[in-house]
Write a structure and sequence with these properties.
Residues 145-346 form the Peptidase M24 domain. With 364 residues, the chain is α+β, with helices and mostly antiparallel strands. Helix content is 33%, strand content 21%. The strands form 6 sheets. Strands 4-3-2-1-5-6 form a 6-stranded mixed β-sheet, with helices on both faces. The longest helix has 22 residues, at 140-161.
């Protein structure tokens, strides 16, 4: 069954007979068309799917289309608004109730579309996470892309770890890491690289600066590769020189917490269970008040996808999910430690996709 057919099979239960897809990751998943620019295409799924774009993306859309049943509609922006194009197609498809992705369309944009469509308010149905739920279980092709992205990240970090030394800057090493990713085939970075050293390593999402790395610093690097749109996400923390007693203590605590989390992940378990288990472990430690909230998230065409390893998320984990496990301790003014890996949930057990060493590495 194709991805588009799986989506159409949901229509009856949703009470719609057509759906407008505007989230770019969802459009890529269903049609193959890919762009980092929001709003350059829309996918109308009805009796047949229509990918609507303009002259700039006509060739690209036809080249990337993964389903020959998707009709490419190129509109002349000066002559016909998107809403007018949709009205013409919706009328031809006899759509009486149209679902739309409320998280992926601006209110002002929707107002303009609704006015052009000239349909009553009750003809529209706002929907959430419809395509996202279809995306949770990765197929063999998706898994291969994520595996490759993880392998690229492993290799790039191994190269860059040798460049960590007193006197280099955060920004300088981060740039070399991103270049190393792309040398190995990454389409770019999965997200802006997080790179923080010394006391700044207590910033969970610290962006690289011109700070000069010093001996004795902890260095936290959180980054990912992108292969055919699919992402990896890995974090490692290093120490330049010999680690202090406290650095060893905190690192050991986070390493144990991460392993406990990984060991609790299995098909059929609620996402909340590993999160609660690790939170309880960290809450019983001397560093309880410095523990980060949440344990991880799903990953795929987007870096942060649902479900989440969070105490309030009772989504049941299924085979084919790819999730991160990333506990951390962040002590303001001192520094922080995070260890993160990508894991594939299987029918029985898991596969670790990121395999850079998890032990404490002291770089001398």
């Amino acid at each position: 069954m194709t991805r588009l057919q799986r989506l159409k099979n949901c229509f009856s239960g949703l009470g719609i007979d057509g759906m407008l897809i505007t989230g770019m990751a969802n459009i890529r998943y269903l049609s193959g068309f890919a762009s980092d620019e929001q709003g350059v295409a829309s996918l109308l799924v009805a009796d047949r799917p229509y990918l609507i774009t303009d002259y700039r993306f006509d060739e690209q859309a036809r080249e990337q289309r993964t389903d020959d049943g998707v009709e490419i509609v190129v509109r002349a922006r000066a002559e016909e608004s998107l809403g007018q194009t949709l009205q013409r197609l919706a009328k031809g498809a006899a759509i009486k109730r149209l679902g739309f992705e409320r998280e992926h369309i601006r209110y002002s944009h929707w107002q303009a579309l609704a006015a052009d469509l000239a349909l009553d308010t009750e003809c529209f149905k706002p929907l959430s996470d419809v395509v996202e739920k279809l995306r949770r279980r990765k197929d063999a092709m998706e898994l291969q892309h994520i595996r490759t992205a993880a392998q690229v990240a492993d290799a790039a970090l191994e190269q860059i770890a040798n460049k960590l030394s007193p006197g280099v800057t955060e920004r300088g090493v981060a740039v070399e890491l991103e270049y190393a990713l792309m040398q190995r085939g990454s389409e770019g970075v999965a997200f802006p690289t997080i790179f923080a050293s010394g006391p700044r390593s207590s910033h969970p999402h610290g962006m690289p600066t011109d700070r000069v790395i010093e001996r004795g610093d902890m260095v936290t690097i959180d980054f990912g590769a992108v292969i055919q749109g699919y992402r990896s996400d890995m974090t490692r923390t290093f120490v330049l020189g010999k680690a202090s007693t406290q650095q060893r203590e905190v690192y050991s605590l986070v390493q144990e917490a991460q392993q406990l989390g990984v060991d609790r992940v299995t098909a059929g378990v609620a996402c909340s269970e590993p999160a609660k288990y690790v939170a309880e472990f960290l809450n019983n430690s001397p560093y309880a008040r410095f523990a980060g909230d949440g344990l991880g998230h799903a990953i795929g065409l987007e870096t942060h996808e649902k479900p989440y390893f969070a105490k309030e998320d009772d989504t049941v984990i299924e085979p084919g999910y790819v999730m991160t496990v990333e506990p951390g301790i962040y002590i303001p003014g001192w520094g922080g430690v995070r260890i993160e890996d990508d894991i594939l949930v299987k029918d029985e057990g898991i596969d670790l996709l990121t395999n850079f060493p998890r032990k404490l590495i002291e770089i001398d």
